[in-house]
Amino acid sequence: MAKPQIKKIAPFDADKAHDVSIAWTGSRAHANRILIHDNETGRKVYDHTTSTYALKAPIPAGTLANGRQYVIQAQVFHGENIPSPLSDKVLFYTFETPEFYFENVA
Fold this sequence. Notes:
Strand 6 (68-78) and strand 7 (82-83) form a beta hairpin. It contains no helices and 8 strands. By secondary structure, it is mainly β. The chain is elongated, with a radius of gyration of 16 Å. Strands 3, 4, 6, 7 and 8 form a 5-stranded antiparallel sheet that branches. A 3-stranded antiparallel sheet has the order 1-2-5, with no helix packed on it.
C-alpha cells in the first residue's frame, strides 16, 4: 500500500498557525493525521486527525515551541476509513520570527 509523503517543511514560527502539505498517490483521501514528536526527548507533542479532502494538515498557533527540532509523520484515511501506513519521518525546525525596528529615521 502507498505511503503518504510530507512535503518539505521550511522553518516556521510556532506562535503562528502553519499548514503541512501531504502528497498521496492512493485513492481519494477523506481525512489525514499528523503525529509530531520532540526530536530531543522523543515525547509526542501533537497527534491530530483532520476530516478533509485537502492534503494538508493544520498545526495551530502555540502547539509547538520555538527554537526546537521536531519529527513529523503523516497518515491518510481513504475508502471505508482505511488508514495508510505512516509516512517516513521528516525533521523540521521552529524559530521565532525576528522583528526589526528602525529608530531616528528622518
